[in-house]
Structure formats: structure tokens, C-alpha cells
Automatic annotation (TrEMBL):
Domain called Carrier: residue spans: 37-81
Domain of life: Bacteria
SUPFAM superfamilies in UniProt: ACP-like
The protein, known as: Acyl carrier protein
Any single Pfam family the record assigns to this protein: PP-binding
Length: 87
């Protein structure tokens, strides 16, 4: 583990849930939503979500990337981000 990875906040399902609960992404994200429940991000919400990921985690993800179709649940989003960003 590098000093840089230790300094970055960890991406967890709770962190993804917090980002998604931003009113610009999901105005009414239920607090008890199951991590595997289906989500549908609209294009503006997705762009804002990716912007927040860049600000908080330094991740630069292009919204046109094919994997974004896989952003269908909190768990799937988290699993992808941990694979890109690390734990």
C-alpha cells in the first residue's frame, strides 16, 4: 500500500450511497435502499456523479465508457470503482 492510497478515502457502498443521495443525482434515494436494488441514472445525474468521484477520489471516468451501462446498483457501482480505484 502506498502513502497516496492510504491518504485517499475508501470507496465503499456507504460512500457510493452518499454520493448518489445528492439531489442532483437522486433527489429521493430511499435511505434503506438495498445495495443490489436496480437504479437508473439519467445522463445529467451520471455526469454529476462522475464529477463528484473526480473531486473526492481523483477518478477521471468518461461518461461514454461502455461499463457505465453496468452502473445499475449501488453494489455494482462500488465493485467497479474499487476495481479501478482500489480499496
Amino acid at each position: 500500500m502506498t502513502a497516496e492510497s492510504e491518504a485517499r478515502p475508501r470507496i465503499t457502498t456507504d460512500a457510493v450511497r452518499e454520493l448518489l443521495s445528492d439531489p442532483k443525482i437522486f433527489a429521493d434515494l430511499p435511505p434503506g435502499l438495498d445495495d443490489d436494488a436496480e437504479l437508473a441514472l439519467d445522463s445529467l445525474g451520471l455526469v454529476w456523479f462522475l464529477h463528484q468521484l473526480e473531486l473526492r477520489y481523483g477518478l477521471e471516468i468518461e461518461p461514454a465508457d461502455a461499463f457505465l451501462a453496468e452502473f445499475t446498483s449501488i453494489r455494482r457501482i462500488t465493485d467497479y470503482l474499487v476495481g479501478v480505484h482500489g480499496p
